Amino acid sequence: MFNWLLTIINKRLSKKYGWQPIWFLRKRFDKVLIKRIKAFQRKNKLFPSGICGKKTYRLVLLKVLLGIKQRKH
Length: 73
Description:
Blueprint: H1 3-17, H2 31-43, H3 54-72
């Protein structure tokens, strides 16, 4: 689709919600990040839009926090 548009949208949503590409194992905003977001969405039964919006953000945040908590124990 329009990877450049999805990249712009994800950058804005990243600032709005406070997520980082590293949450999807990427260092930057690019087409691979979009693919990883889509894979995460499919795996978690969300619509695979490639955009880390409100629902995707909440779910990935939960998984990031649970991962940090599990590493500390």
